[in-house]
Automatic annotation (TrEMBL):
Bilayer-crossing regions: 12-36, 56-72, 84-105
Keyword list, A-Z: Membrane, Transmembrane, Transmembrane helix
Name of protein: DUF7704 domain-containing protein
Pfam family, one: DUF7704
Record carries keyword Membrane: yes
Record domain DUF7704: where: 2-141
Organism: Cladorrhinum samala
Length: 157
């Protein structure tokens, strides 16, 4: 299916997004104290429960990477890919919402004070969400026909 997406969404959803998921999962799993302490710009030492939840979050990022890779590289059904992207669209909204709720209003609007983790949680997630919006609105053009659809069309001619 990845080959059926217009070029820019294809590169975004099959290269950039999987890399960002791996980039989020590895430090959460292997350096959970650091990862948890970076979630807000307020210095703190994570407790054992936070470390556990951080590793579980890393595992979920890894799962999202595996599911996304499987869906985008194995199905030729546009409906399946669109459903997957809609699920990610909804998750983008809640991810940013929860991050901003933890930061509070002042922390959310002072982007100049954000650390790299906050930029990833808010900035990168919003960028991916805008890409999904643009894809759903057709700004990059229509999806390409699947190879089997092309072959089927040739047989019918």
């Amino acid at each position: 299916m990845a080959s059926q997406l217009p070029l820019i969404p294809r590169l975004t959803f099959t290269i950039f997004e999987p890399i960002s998921l791996i980039a989020g999962s590895l430090p959460a799993i292997f350096f959970p104290q650091w990862f948890a302490s970076q979630q807000t710009p307020f210095p703190h030492q994570p407790d054992p429960s936070s470390v556990l939840v951080t590793r579980q979050l890393g595992n979920m990022y890894l799962l999202a990477f595996l599911i996304g890779t499987a869906v985008l590289h194995t199905t030729s059904e546009v409906k399946v890919v669109r459903a997957y992207l809609w699920a990610l669209w909804a998750a983008d909204i809640t991810h940013v919402w929860f991050t901003c709720a933890a930061l509070g209003w002042e922390g959310s609007v002072r982007a100049g004070e954000w650390n790299g983790m906050t930029w990833g949680n808010v900035g990168a997630t919003l960028a991916l969400n805008m890409m999904r919006n643009a894809y759903f609105l057709g700004w990059f053009g229509d999806d390409l026909a699947a190879d089997k659809d092309l072959k089927k069309g040739k047989k019918e001619l």
